[in-house]
Amino acid sequence: MTYRAPLDDFRLLLNHVIGFDAVAGTDRFADATTDTVEAILSEAAKMCEEVLAPLNTNGDLDPAVLENGKVRTSKGFADGYQAIAEGGWVAVSADPEYGGMGLPMTVTSAVNDMMVSSCMSLHLNPLMTQGQIEALEHHASDEIKDLYLPKLVTGEWAGTMNLTEPQAGSDVGALSSKAEPNGDGTYSVTGQKIFISWGDNDFTENVCHLVLARLPDGVAGTKGISLFLVPRNIPDENGNPGTANSLKVVSVEHKMGIHGSPTCVMSFEGARGWLIGGEHDGMRAMFTMMNNARLGVGVQGVGIAERAYQQALAYANERKQGRSPEGTIIGHADVRRMLATMKSDTFAARAIALSLAVAIDMSNATGDAEWKARAAFLTPIAKAFGTDTGIAVANMGLQVHGGMGFIEETGAAQYVRDVRVTSIYEGTNGIQAMDLVGRKLLDGGEAAYRLLDEIEAFAESARATMPDLAEPVWQASENLRETTEALAARDIADRFAVAVPFLQGFARVLGGYFHLCAAMAKPDGAEAKLARFYITRLLPEHVGLLAHAREGGDDLMAISPDDLAV
Predict the structure, then answer these.
(1) Which residues contact 59 (CB under 8 A, 6 or more apart)?
(2) Domain termination site, one of 259, 280, 301
(3) How many beta carbons lie within 10 A of that of residue 318, not counting itself?
(4) Which of 296, 419, 297, 400 is nearest to 343 (CA)?
(5) Distance (Å, rounded) from C-alpha 487 to C-alpha 438?
C-alpha cells in the first residue's frame, strides 16, 4: 500500500491549532519560518514515501537476527538508514555547534511522525539516538560532547538507552548493574540489561550505550544510580572507533511485532565507560532522554494510526461488498463510522503530541516556568493517548478489512502487532497516568487549570460562530476542572486508583478543543465535519471517564485477590 505523508494536517496544526507561531517568534527559533518548515517537511515526506515506506514489510518478514555474535539487520535497512543520516533527519533539533539543524522539537516530531508511518522498526534507531544527543547536550562534559555529539548527529554512530534488567523493570531502583572506578576517570561497568532497542546494528561505525549502574558507594534505590556512556568500540586518539569494548549482545528477542528492530539482551562485562552527569545523579540525566523518548513514542502511536487509517481507507474505497451508493464498503454506515473515528482520533492525538512539542520548544526558548510545567503535564497524556489511539486505530483498521485483515497478505495485521508495544515501553500507560495524577498535580493543579482556562476562553470566543460545537467543549472543560479539583484534594492512593480514566478523560477534552480550533480555521472544509463528528460522538465519552475518576479507590481495593480468583 502506498503511503502519503499528511502534510496538509501538519500545515493546519502548525498554522492554526497548536500555536507554533509563538515558537517561530522566539529569538532561538527565528529561523523556523513558515517557508523553511514547509521545505523541510516536504523533503522529509519525499524520503519517507519513496525510501522508507517500501521497507516496512521487509522488516516484518526478514527480521533482525543474531549471527556469530553480530546483529544482521533486515534487508534494505542499511540503505534506509543511510538516507535518514545523509538527510540530517537524526539531528533536526540538535545543537548546530555539533552539526545539528537546531530546529524546534515540533519539527522533529512531525518528521518522526512520517518516519514511523513509513517504517516504525527502522525509526526506533534514530529515535534512540535523538534522545541520547539531548542527554549528552545537557549532562555530559565538554570533552565527551566534542567527541561523541558530532558522530551521533551525522548518524555515523548510533545511541541506545539501557535501563531495564530482569528484576528491575518499572522499578528502576532495583537494578544490580555495578560500576567500579578505574582510577583514570573511567569506570568498569558490569551487568545485564534487557529490552534494549537497537542494541547493535551492522550499518553504523559505533553504537554508544547509556547505561544505568550503581557505584560502590551508591545507596539503594534510584538515588544511588549513576549514568555511564559505554561505547561498543572505544574511540582511539583520533576519535575513530578502536578496540572492541567488553560488552556483547547475548540474544535478540522474538517479538510480537517490530521484527526489524533488534531488541537485545546486553551483557556488560567490565566494559569501559564514562560518567555522564554527577555521581549518583543518573536518573536525572536519564530522564532527559526518557522524556524525549516519551514524546517520540506517543508520536509512534500517531504514525502507526496514520498508516493504518490510510490503508483502511484505500481498502474501503476498493472493496465491493453488499449494496451502497458508492458500490464499495465505504458506503456502509458502520465502515464510515470506523473511518471517521480513525481519522478524527488520529488528528486529536497528533494535535496533543505537537502541542507538547510546542511547550517543550517554548520552555527551551524562553526558560519560562509555566511552559516547563505545561510540557511536564502534557508528557504523560501525549504518550498514553497517542499510543492508545495507535492501538485502537490499528485494530479498527483491521476490522475495516474484515476477514482479509486477519490475513497477513494485506499488511493490516502488522500495524496491530507493531504498535502494541508502544503502550508498554518508555513507561507503561498506567505509569504515565500515575505520573499525571501524582507528580504532575503536586502544584495543586495549576498547570492543568491554566490549560483549561485557555480551552474555555477559546470556546467562549467560538460561541458566536459555532455555538453547537463551542458549548460542548466549554462544558466538558468545566467538568474536567471540577474533577481535577476533586482529585487534587485526595490522597495519592485514591488518585492512583482512578489515574487511567482521568488521563483518558483529559485527553478526550483536549481532543475536542483542538478539533474546535481546526473547525474555526476551516469552517467550510472537511475539518469542520470531522470536528462535529468528534465533538458530538467521541467527546461525550469524557463524562463516563470522569465519573469513574471521581469514584476514588475504596471499592476497587475492596476486591481482594481471592475475589478475583477463578
Answers:
(1) 74, 77, 119, 121, 122, 258, 259, 260, 261
(2) 280
(3) 10
(4) 400
(5) 10
145-158 confidence digits (pLDDT tens): 999 999 999 999 99
User: Would you please indicate which residues are annotated as catalytic (active-site) residues?
Assistant: 426
- Taking CA atoms, 449 is separated from 50, 307, 446, 457, in Å, by 44, 34, 5, 12
Compute the Cα dihedral for 527, 528, 533, 536 and give only its sign.
Answer: positive
Q: Where are the beta strands (DSSP E) in 165-293?
A: 178-181, 187-197, 206-214, 225-231, 233-235, 241-244, 247-252, 263-276
DSSP letters for 384-417: HHHHHHHHHHHHHHHHHHGGGGGSGGGSHHHHHH
Between CA 458 and CA 442 the distance in angstroms is: 26
Which CATH number goes with the domain that contains 222?
2.40.110.20
Per the structure, how many domains does the chain have? 2
Q: What are phi and psi of 68, to 5 degrees?
A: 55, 40
Residue 413 confidence (pLDDT): 98
DSSP secondary structure of 282-341: HHHHHHHHHHHHHHHHHHHHHHHHHHHHHHHHHHHHH---S--TTSSGGGSHHHHHHHHH
Predicted confidence (pLDDT) per residue in 236-284, tens digit: 989 999 999 999 999 999 999 999 999 999 999 999 999 999 999 998 8
- pLDDT-derived band of residue 353, with 50, 70 and 90 as boundaries? very high
Quote the pLDDT of residue 566: 82
What is the rounded (10 degree) CA torsion for 83, 8, 381, 506?
A: -170
Domain that holds residue 444: 430-559
Contacts of 310 (CB under 8 A, 6+ apart): 1, 3, 4, 117
Domain end point (choices 246, 280, 314):
280
Cβ pair 122, 77 in contact under 8 A: yes
Question: Over 80: is that where the pLDDT of 189 sits?
Answer: yes
Distance in angstroms (rounded) separating the CA atoms of residues 392 and 420: 10
CA separation for the pair 148, 97 (Å, rounded): 13
Report how far residue 313's alpha carbon sits from residue 417's, in angstroms, rounded to the nearest whole number: 19
In a domain, 236, yes or no: yes
> What's the grid cell of residue 396?
479498527
- Mean pLDDT of all residues in 209-217: 96
Contacts of 71 (CB under 8 A, 6+ apart): 64, 65, 199, 200, 201, 202, 249, 252, 262, 264
